[in-house]
Design brief:
alpha+beta
């Protein structure tokens, strides 16, 4: 179920503060975050986030097409190694 429109998109307060500080100073640093649940807003465009996937931090460069999505969508948590069973040898 999606979030109510009257509430607006959810962004963690500490993350929003970091984004505002970088935009105010015109800096382009990597923002390290564990907040996978935060929604990408237009203020975050052209910034790079290091999103934690449970094991390491994945760099995510935010573009215009990502607005409205969650940060966690771009840092996969599972690695697919293929199905088990017999492997064909060529």
């Amino acid at each position: 179920m999606s979030r109510s429109i009257k509430k607006g998109p959810f962004v963690d307060g500490h993350l929003l503060k970091k984004v505002d500080d970088l935009n105010g100073a015109n800096e382009k640093r990597v923002i390290k975050t564990w907040s996978r649940r935060s929604t990408i807003t237009p203020e975050m465009v052209s910034l790079t986030f290091a999103v934690h996937n449970g094991r390491k931090f994945i760099p995510v460069f935010v573009s215009e097409h990502m607005v409205g999505h969650k940060l966690g969508e771009f840092a996969p948590t599972r690695t697919y190694t293929g199905h088990g069973g017999d492997k064909k040898v060529r």
